[in-house]
Design brief:
6 helices, globular, alpha+beta, about 450 residues
Length: about 450
């Protein structure tokens, strides 16, 4: 039977009426998220919903973090934010399903309690269904939509999922699973839930799951994960939050894209904050068409039979990335910055030196998030070459990670040139050893000093 549904990733709807004073200024990396999200809700969010409304889907599914303020300790604040966000999603005019993320509020919190007592019943009524928990399955036109709550997965919910898959596998035309975190983290490393991911990956490989949908990282990607006989399942990772006017930018522009082996194929990825979008999935019997639509571009692929690898893959039209730096270009550098991603929740007494010039500590970062960089001083610009050396004295914290380092130059003639992203991902502490393929990381000691090369073509 024909089914047509839309999946959106994080939206982090955030409303000006809850934040009357947005005048606080800060460097970009330390700007409170709610200040960015209020503007994004009023521009990006409403544009995305308008695009979806015109498509007239049968269903709209969110992979979580549909609002920003569900974590608030003030009950009335959290409740209003959750309700206002729910009303925005409902404005599409079709049934809405939500796979709970982080910002809807933990169980027992004001937001979490309101979500269970009010949003879950509203969702069930909206669907004409009967369920009372944050995880449930919904059957529509022969397909099964399984919604998970990743924060409370282990134990009861995990057993329920296996039993539900045993029940529906014999009759479902398609099985789709929706949860917040990715199973395969291609960029924004060190920002997932490894135990949840390992369990779900094994389940998706054992049972006839067509597609796993997720969000969480604020970047977007499509990948195929082979089971046997070249059959497999897709992971579609989306984000509907970002800057409306930011050009389309590929994930590998600033991230060292992960390699999970030949059985896990990465097709394309979009950088955090860039080209907020959504997925349109249209199935008719065994055939499925997947479209990615955004404010800055489109992509598509087709699946001709159950669990087959996609065909007719059309990737987003990424602008050419300039990594070439000629000797003459060195004389017209007007500004430069060092891009760096990290996780550090402890002391930050790190020290960075580029070509012998001290830059100070790494930018503060607790979640390997984007928008962290150091603008290089004028005197350092004259030291830049095609090959540059960055010395890193690691923090003395017991748990941290650092990676995806690059240099970015702006030339007088208007060109923007980015060095090759350093491929090494460094970590300290045991936490990262539970991640998939931990051998792709380089373990370092607390306080260690090491040097990496940042090179242009």
């Amino acid at each position: 039977m024909k089914t047509r549904f839309v999946v959106i990733g994080d939206t982090h709807f955030c409303f000006r009426k809850h934040h009357p004073d947005l005048s606080r200024t800060s460097e970009l990396g330390n700007l409170p998220d709610y200040i960015r999200y209020v503007g994004m809700t009023e521009t990006t969010g409403r544009k995305i919903l308008s695009m979806i409304r015109e498509l007239k889907p049968d269903l709209l599914i969110s992979t979580g973090d549909y609002v920003e303020g569900g974590l608030e300790a003030n009950p009335s604040f959290a409740e209003e934010e959750l309700l206002d966000g729910w009303n925005m999603l409902k404005s599409i005019g079709c049934p809405v399903l939500i796979a709970k993320g982080t910002h809807e509020g933990k169980a027992g919190s004001p937001g979490g309690n309101f979500y269970r007592k009010n949003i879950i019943p509203a969702m069930a009524e909206n669907l004409g269904a009967s369920f009372s928990k944050e995880y449930f399955s919904y059957e529509f036109n022969g397909s099964v939509f399984i919604i998970l709550d990743y924060l409370n997965y282990e134990g009861e919910q995990e057993k329920w999922l296996v039993n539900e898959l045993e029940r529906v596998s014999v009759k479902a035309e398609h099985i789709y699973i929706f949860a917040h975190p990715p199973l395969y983290l291609w960029g924004r490393h060190f920002f997932d839930n490894p135990e949840f991911s390992k369990s779900l990956d094994a389940i998706c490989r054992k049972y006839p799951v067509d597609i796993y949908f997720c969000g969480h990282t604020h970047n977007q990607s499509i990948s195929f994960h082979e089971k046997a006989d070249r059959k497999g399942f897709l992971q579609l990772k989306g984000s509907s939050v970002g800057y409306a006017n930011m050009p389309l930018c590929s994930m590998d522009s600033y991230h060292a894209v992960a390699d999970f082996g030949r059985s896990n194929k990465f097709y394309w990825g979009v950088l955090e904050d860039s080209a907020p979008g959504f997925f349109l999935v249209e199935s008719d019997g065994e055939k499925t068409e997947i479209s990615w639509k955004s404010l800055s571009g489109e992509a598509s692929m087709q699946i001709d039979s159950h669990f087959a690898e996609p065909e007719n893959i059309r990737i987003p039209s990424f602008p050419p990335l300039n990594r070439r730096l000629d000797e003459d270009d060195l004389h017209q550098i007007i500004s430069a910055r060092l891009n760096l991603f990290s996780v550090n929740k402890g002391i930050n007494n790190s020290v960075l030196k580029l070509n012998g010039f001290e830059l100070g500590p790494m930018p503060d970062n607790v979640s390997y998030a984007a928008r962290r960089f150091i603008n290089l001083p004028e005197e350092l610009l004259r030291s830049l070459r095609k090959a540059n050396e960055l010395e890193i004295k690691m923090t003395e914290a017991n748990l941290f990670a650092v990676g995806s380092i690059s240099l970015e130059l702006l030339l007088y003639d208007g060109r923007r040139i980015i060095s090759r992203v350093n491929p090494e991902l460094f970590y300290c502490g045991k936490a990262w050893e539970t991640y998939r393929n931990p051998e792709r990381f380089t373990k370092v000691n607390s306080g260690a000093t090491l040097t990496v090369s940042l090179c242009f073509d």
